[in-house]
Amino acid sequence: MDNSKLCDAHCHPHDDVEHLDMIPKLKTGHITIMGVRQDDWDRVAEVTAQCASGRCIPSFGIHPWFLHRLMVDDNADPKTHYDQVLTAKIASEKQEMIEALERPFPREEWVANLKQRLADHPQAVVGEVGLDRAARLLPDGAIEWHGVKPTTVQTSIDHQMHVLRIQLEIAREFQRAVSVHCVQASGHLLQLLQELAVPSKKKDKSSSTALPPPVRLCIHSFVGSAGSIPQFLNVKGFSIYVSFSVAISGRLAKSKLQQLMCAIPEDRLLIESDLNSPQGQDEAMEEIVKVVAEARQWSIEQTIEQTYRNWQTFVGMQ
Ligand SMILES: [Zn+2]
User: Fold this and answer.
1) CA angle in degrees (0–180, nearest 5) for 66-41-136
2) For the chain, which residues make up each domain, given as ranges?
3) Residues with a beta carbon under 5 angstroms from ion ligand 1
4) Which of 6, 64, 86, 123 is a Cys-bridge partner for 132, taking CB atoms 3.0 to 4.6 Å apart?
5) Taking the complete model, does pTM exceed 0.70, yes or no?
6) Ligand 1 centre from 180 Cα, in Å?
């Protein structure tokens, strides 16, 4: 297998701080490293700098699991902000959470931070961003899971959509690709993309300004229904890509996964590991190539070549 053309469209190897030195030595040719909160963006940038030029694309964004920390209305005080964006089945858990959480980041601050990263890294992707209707906050607002049962506290879908909209608008402004996490929220994501769709040329006849180029948006480790794919592909103003991993997509029944993989146009299909460590990353990439090859009835070489070209177009290398 020609690993030099393997492109991991979505991964977090920088999470494994003990093995950072393995990242520049991966056999996988190209990696797209996803930041998930403002405090891992430095590590994403450092790891990228250690990799040979063009091998690693940094990505900066705020993951749905951390969106409660972001304010969208800077006039609200912190407690009011948390009271508005958090929901819980057990009211006392919500009150305890509000007491435990650190101050939220003012919109002005996190937006400026994200824009600065994109300006500093002209190749960077916006990610990992998205929507998650299954995620629950950990006790005391912890961000690392240590086997402790999550609370019933969740971030409201309205707040998640508001922050995602802001991050997508920034991606459009900077003409960057986006990597999106979407769990139990396909309908909400579709609705948001449709709201952001650029006005059709017909309606916009009076204006002489050219339409912005479409935003390349990858739904990563997609596990939604194959039937929803055409709706996503039809949204104006976005070029939708879909990527698959052994770690997440591999949990689906084989027939469903194959059906999904076949529902994606060949020039929009990407592969990824979604791993949080460089350990096992090369193996996960070799494995997902085989799974895609079998589903699409492509040869291994053809699968590598096609996903290589797709990744280059996705990140804007060509
Ligand atoms: Zn991820």
Assistant:
1) 15
2) 3-35+44-198+213-294+301-315
3) 128
4) 64
5) yes
6) 8
